[in-house]
């Protein structure tokens, strides 16, 4: 019986060592994967420009793409008439509001604005600006989040003018695609 106990105890120690080695190997693989994260998304800057978008973004295999639905800005003035532009603010305020909401959505998934690889902005003409597109207002809000010292990543981006959005009042809607390595 003593011999049987010694053999079993020896096997248990051997199994424990195997498990420890396996755990160490798995940790090394996970660390290597996190080090490789910077190479999973490659951003090509605009040629000869400091404009805060990328000309192209490559997302390598082994990376999850996260598609975030179109996001409208929040109502910032609840006393303004419902569906009015005043309820949502100007283009800059709406850009900041929509991007902040996107940031919150990504944070719920353990991601951030730096993980965005593609952004599409749908803009309507601003009645307060003679029914012209307020691209300067968009850029003023956008540059608070992208191409900054704290968050230098720049997504590929398109900004298009549309006749209207589904909800009356907002001047823009933003949708993004983010990338997360496995």
Question: Which features would summarize this protein structure in a list?
Answer:
2 domains; single chain; about 180 residues; about 35% helix; 60s Ribosomal Protein L30, Chain: A; alpha+beta; 5 helices
Q: What overall geometry do the principal axes of the alpha carbons give?
A: globular
Q: What is the CATH architecture annotation of the largest domain?
A: 2-Layer Sandwich
Could you give the distance between the termini? 49 Å
Structurally, how many domains make up the residues? Answer: 2
Low-confidence stretches: 25-36
How many helical elements?
Answer: 5
CATH class of the largest domain: Alpha Beta
Which structural class do the helices and strands define?
Answer: alpha+beta
Quaternary state of the chains: single chain
Q: Radius of gyration, rounded?
A: 25 Å
From N to C, what is the helix and strand string? HHEEEHHEHEE
Total beta strand runs: 6
Mean pLDDT, to the nearest integer, reads 86
Tell me the strand order in the biggest sheet: 3-6-4-5
The CATH topology label of the largest domain is 60s Ribosomal Protein L30, Chain: A
Helix content: 25-40%
Sheet bearing the most strands, described? Answer: 4 strands, mixed
Share of β-strand residues:
15-25%
CATH H-tier superfamily of the largest domain: RutC-like
